[in-house]
């Protein structure tokens, strides 16, 4: 192939622009990205060579070499890994084939700091070379292809790249950075060495650089022809805990997660017994932009005896812990394990269970810590990841109880951070249930008329306003022996909390109001299953409740939004016998049609107060106007 010029995919151009402009303040990360690509390429070769040892050619030792040429102002990162064919070079370096690209582009805001964080998460890898280079030349040959099928890819990182066929004796890839004016610091051994030490020490392959010695005659350091390793070359997770500093753990996290921030917590263990494996698991400090995508694969890499097997091995973590990043290195799995096989393996099941317990343990130690800093960390975690953790209640029966203890809610006593244990510990004497209300927003929940009696009696009610809450409630029925009970379902039964006098009075009122209730039932027969007197209201004239076991108004709305039809069941209208409006209604000698209007307005208002939508808002407005004028 003679030299051909190609245009970058539109997204690449945009990303290139962003990378070079927004990541400059942390420019040395390009070295981490390129060394990581080189190491990945070697991992891939090792993996493919399991079935085809000939791919090693005459070079079985996998390594990364970094060199520079002061005259030419180039810095070169070479590996003898898998390499790329011409098609691969064009598709891997000229397009962004990842599925998240669209989402990613949609998230960009033009705010450099935020965008830089996003880019980090997304992992632009290779393109980060353009932060310091005004041209990158990649010379590569796919392992297994003959020497004359090498490829040279070259670009200035603007709109185009060039491709041509070359002869390349060794397999693998050389990434040659033509440094920009002012970036000469990367032509110094100490600078490159210290950056590699900082970011890439854990890489399990040797990273080699030419040795420097002191030339007394010239009175300066000179580069020799001898190569020496500049990293420890032992996989970080395989070292013992005492050998790894917190900084190294954090760097490793940043490397595998593309996060720019340190993790919230991590756990590193060697598990022995029936199944033998090492786990190094991290909880990020911030949610990634695609946290909500349940199809997104997990963030845990699988190694078998330090040989990289696959990224994002979802079978190693339950879906609700998809935000966990890290490495699991198994001593038992076969090297040629496939994703399908993983799903069925008993060893993997044991690893998943063990790792889940570790992650929950990490969260518990933050949540239950006496230290304020840990508590704050947990609160921050909950804000970002709480909704995802709630998915676990239905997914992971084994850990239901542990999960429920980790949940935090808003309540009528505090706007956030109320655990079920807190709730139970301050429950009123004689209180047999954990009361909650679901609503579309905190404001709607707080102002719901259904809460009035609970407020009056000082009984705490959990305010559940996350979309997953209704779903969570279909799996979480009780906590420490106390059932969870909706305040908007069924007749209010405060059990021992309600005194006998109140009960008696309510029954008497119901009796005396019977004619009114019958009239209301008749007027609302198409809309309400029943009309009854309630003790749950204090300030409001009426409210809507559904029967125990029926779909709540809130859930019906969620289902509708999701395009599903909720089973229709008419709600019950409850009225407050003490309220002036109800009294007026009772005393009114209005005509039948006027009474019907009043009844409809009462019902509509109860629907609105509950956060519901009126089926015929115009009719409501018309009736209210008529009443205002009347
Ligand atoms: N040294 C290399 N040898 C072989 N292939 C490479 C090399 N560097 C990059 N590639 C190929 O180019 C692709 C794009 O690289 P890039 O660094 O942009 O993203 P990535 O490595 O896939 O993603 P991430 O940086 O998020 O891990 C890689 O997936 C790989 O296929």
From TrEMBL:
- Tell me the keywords, alphabetical order: ATP-binding, Chaperone, Cytoplasm, Nucleotide-binding, Stress response
Which Pfam families does this UniProt record tie to the protein? HATPase_c_3, HSP90
Q: Where is this region: A?
A: 1-339
Give the InterPro entries listed for this entry.
Answer: HATPase_C_sf, HATPase_dom, Heat_shock_protein_90_CS, HSP90_C, Hsp90_fam, Hsp90_N, Ribosomal_Su5_D2-typ_SF
| Family matches, as SMART domains | HATPase_c
Keyword ATP-binding appears in the UniProt entry: yes
Which region is the signal sequence? none
Q: Where in the cell is it found?
A: Cytoplasm
* The Histidine kinase/HSP90-like ATPase domain, residue ranges: 26-183
Assembly and binders: Homodimer.
Protein's job? Molecular chaperone. Has ATPase activity.
What family, per the record? Answer: Belongs to the heat shock protein 90 family.
Question: What is the official name of this protein in its record?
Answer: Chaperone protein HtpG
* Encoding gene, per UniProt annotation: htpG
